[in-house]
Write a structure and sequence with these properties.
This protein is α/β, with parallel strands linked by helices and about 325 residues long. Helix content is about 45%, strand content about 15%. The protein is elongated. The two termini are about 45 Å apart.
């Protein structure tokens, strides 16, 4: 037991040392930021073609993440493996593109063909390296300097602090482009149609029941007509409109249960409905709609446009689509 405690204490101490070392690298990166960052963002923003990331080994893995982040937030990007570039993939690069090459040392031999290609065809290149005087640094039109702090690896060999700093620099570039392009939630949703992000960013208009599937009756409807409409449309509610088509109120299966002891034989919709109920707008995000439903402890929202009902959404529609 004592040995286990010692091991646990040692593991935690090592973890803290790793975190501290990587924080130190990020802090140094913060202090290295200068006008070259603005120049790099200007270059990316004004690029007519694609942003092409490249790097070898762990730098390549970070490059893939940066390319994916840029592409998903409005800046067309892709990753090119240096070895594949030397065997034909350079043909994917056009004069309208921009290359961002990553190498901590700046001396990755595998990048040489990409550097030469960029110079030969006048393709702009941003170098990300800790050594501006390296082959990569000298080839770059702009150099974004990485910190020279030690790796968190106890051997000082495995890329750890350096890749963390590179990842953070990539996030800085991505966030900078989001700000410059005014990239919106709606645009983000277009690029993330699947998974949890896609479901949260869907809008009410994408999930609501419309037309003949919408339970709507006139104000003078009887209780029998209301129950029939509620049963047929199977949404647990009915909305009511006046003679101009304006939305006036709604009645739910919960309201019906609460009225079981009342004499409803001669009741009309206008006598038993909830007037001015909470409603939704079609451009509302699904995540906003489910918050209203949860906060108000209700299951349905009618969607209104110019005071006319254009749809209805049920909490089950949201849950079925993964909105939680």
């Amino acid at each position: 037991m004592q040995m286990l405690n010692k091991l646990q204490n040692s593991d935690i101490l090592n973890a803290i040392k790793t975190i501290d070392c990587e924080i130190e690298a990020i802090q140094e990166l913060k202090n290295l930021l200068d006008e070259n960052l603005t120049k790099a963002l200007d270059l990316i923003e004004n690029t007519k073609g694609r942003i092409i990331l490249s790097g070898m080994g762990k730098s390549g893995h970070i490059g893939k993440k940066i390319a994916a982040s840029l592409a998903s937030t409005g800046t067309p990007s892709f990753f090119m493996h240096p070895a594949e570039a030397s065997h034909g993939d350079l043909g994917m690069v056009t004069s309208d593109d921009l290359i961002i090459a990553i190498s901590n040392s700046g001396e990755s031999r595998e990048l040489i063909d990409i550097l030469n290609y960029s110079k030969r065809f006048g393709i702009k290149l941003i170098a990300i390296t800790k050594n501006p005087d390296s082959s990569l640094g000298k080839a770059g039109d702009i150099v974004l300097k990485l910190p020279s702090s030690k790796e968190a690896c106890p051997l000082g060999l495995a890329p750890t602090s350096s890749t963390t700093a590179t990842l953070v620099l990539g996030d800085i570039i991505t966030v900078g482009m989001i700000e410059r392009r005014g990239f919106s939630k709606a645009q983000f949703n277009q690029r993330h149609p699947g998974g949890k992000l896609g479901s949260i960013l869907q809008k009410v208009k994408d999930m609501m029941h419309t037309g003949d599937n919408m339970p709507i009756l006139p104000l003078n409807s009887t209780i029998n007509e209301i129950i029939m409409e509620m049963t047929t449309k199977r949404l647990g509610c009915v909305g009511f409109i006046d003679n101009t088509g304006d939305f006036c109120g709604m009645f739910t299966d919960g309201d019906l249960r609460r009225c079981l002891n009342a004499d409803l034989k001669n009741a009309k919709a206008q006598d038993i409905m909830t007037k001015n109920p909470i409603t939704a707008e079609k451009e509302m995000f699904a995540s906003e709609a489910i918050k209203i439903l949860n906060d108000k402890k209700i299951t349905n929202l009618f969607v209104i446009e110019n005071n006319k009902p254009i749809g209805v959404i049920h909490i089950h529609d949201l849950l079925k689509n993964g909105v939680v």
